[in-house]
Predict the structure.
Amino acid sequence: MLNWKTNQHGTTALLIRGARRVGKSTIAEEFARKEYESYILVDFSKASQNIHRLFEDISDLDYIFTQLQLNYRTSLKPHKSVIIFDEIQKQPLARQAIKSLVADGRYDYIETGSLLSIKRKGKSASKKNQPKSILIPSEETRLDMYPMDYEEFRWALGDNDTIPLLRTMFNNLSPLSDSTNRRMMRDFRLYVLVGGMPQAVNDYLDTHDMSIVDQRKRSILDLYDEDFYELDPSGQASDLFHAIPSQLNSNASRYQVSSVIEGGRLDRLREQINILKDSMTANLAYYANDPSAGLALHINRDQFKLFCGDTGLFVTLAFWDDAFTENAIYQKLLNDKLKADMGYVYENVVSQILTATGHKLYYHTWPTPSGKHNYEIDFLLSRKGKICPIEVKSSASNVHVSIDEFQKKFSARILQRYLLHSKDIRKELDLIKLPMYMAMFL
């Protein structure tokens, strides 16, 4: 955000995109409070009809600015103030007006809203006086916002020291000691369970009661469902989202829509899949046909996996059938004592970490010699003209057949192999084994 303000000099508006309840409005207002002499926040979900109507005719910007200052009792100062359009999807004409507002040059502009809702309102209108479509302004700098990452979670707990120290250990490939790693993994599992949605994190800090945290996450998931049903009244988008944990737990080489939607075919459900992707509630990992440096050139768009955008929400989805996820379950998960294969949970959190650090998600599978099973590389990164395969392993076993077979098959293409597990840092020939919480450094 600072780079935008410093480098763009008001020539673009900043559009903050992200899932609902990820904290877009809060960060926008905090930035405005710290970086500008004054600001006006127009929340279109609460604004009066008079404010909404201002954007039906933008031929007189002086009138619009005067009305905003009078209604919000704030004085705007040219080149020193910012106007925030919060929940911009509620008034698409305000977004369309960005071109003219930016050209005017008096003030800076920040837009926030759920990408899901922006896409809905921008494409069609179900309400009176809503335009069927708007001209999407090119004068926008887009910034994707994700749930709090593990470092931000540690900050929220008052810990500013752990992550820099872990980065040093990673850079030097220095073991932490088994006892220290066990403590670090327990701390990391707390993040996995709570997740990175700010309201859930606040509830944990206020109460340390996991059932209250779980109720908060359920309310967020209910909000997502409302959006899904508004976009897709058939309920198929919601069904596809809720099936993410079971699909990952099935160890299938792809998300199988036909097992979720009776008679479902991918070519008939692309719109629903795009709803999940564009809402940023889910992350897609595409199958790479030919794992090489140009991964995007070799993807199969018909073969993919779906991950939940926030692993805390993922855990709640996994236990959705209960009225709430009991504290006992959380405690067992936290202490790594739940009798369940939690590999899919760790796979989801790694997908979340890689996405937040700017990586696109790709994976690769191929049949074993018997043809009865598949080898699988969970994630592939492209770096320095080569690839870095990543295997995520939750069990205590030292066996890592898939990444070893991948080495035999594609050795000339590999820059570095990584195995993410629950144990301390180790190096085994050219394979670097890292604890899960160090995925953020890859």
Observations:
- The first strand starts at residue 13 and ends at 18.
